[in-house]
TrEMBL record:
Pfam families: DUF433. It comes from marine sediment metagenome. This is DUF433 domain-containing protein.
Length: 73
C-alpha cells in the first residue's frame, strides 16, 4: 500500500482514506468517474494532486489483484 492511503478501523469504518483526512478513496474515484476535474476534487475535498494519483494507484492495484471469473452465458 502506498504511504498516502491508510486503513484504520476508527476512520470511516475501516475504508481506505487519504492519509490525514477522512476522505475515502472511493469518493475520489467516484468524483473522477462522475466528471469532476482534479481541480474540483482538490477544492471540494482539500486533497492534493498527489493524493488523487495515490487513490487511482490504489484502485488500480486492487483491480490487478482481483481474481475474475467469467459469467455463465
Amino acid at each position: 500500500m502506498n504511504d498516502r492511503i491508510i486503513i484504520d478501523p476508527d476512520i470511516q469504518h475501516g475504508k481506505p482514506v487519504i492519509k490525514g483526512t477522512r476522505v475515502p478513496v472511493v469518493r475520489i474515484i467516484g468524483g473522477l468517474a462522475g466528471g469532476m476535474t482534479k481541480e474540483e476534487i482538490i477544492r471540494e475535498y482539500e486533497v492534493s494532486e498527489e493524493d488523487i494519483r495515490a487513490a487511482l494507484t490504489y484502485a488500480g492495484e486492487l483491480i490487478e489483484e482481483e481474481e475474475f471469473h467469467p459469467l455463465p452465458k
